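Researcher: I'm preparing a figure for a lab meeting and need a structural model of a single chain. I don't have an experimental structure, so a prediction will have to do for now. The sequence is pasted below. Please return the structure as tokens so I can convert it later.
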Amino acid sequence: MHSTYLTSQGLRVVVAEDDDQLAELITSLLTEDARFVFVGRARTGDEAVELAGEHRPDIVVMDIAMPGRDGFEATRLIRSLNAGQHVVIYTGSDEYADVARAEEAGAAGFLHKDALISGNLCDALEVLHRNYLRPDDPVEP
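Model: Understood. Here is the structure written out token by token.
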């Protein structure tokens, strides 16, 4: 199992983004916030699956449009290997179908790319991580 919510080291994050500038922006926002620890960057969907398995992060921040295996397929595979893995998918698209596909793939949440540059990224990731119910979590009546 991956590390628990808000350990003394912070939430461990893998960023899956093929655009160098956007990946750098996301990484800098995460490293500037003590709640997070950046543990790796994937440039393809296959690398995202590999890094998620290797590092067992608390959160994978996944772009939809990844080279090779897209973000939906990478999320589906990550979740099949570790059902408790939190993947947050993002895109610049305003298509509701993308939100539905992210949910079908098992994503813990969906963000628009505008949220990545708004300064609210870290707060959004913390809320999504904290409020996502894992399949093996007990449900309170």
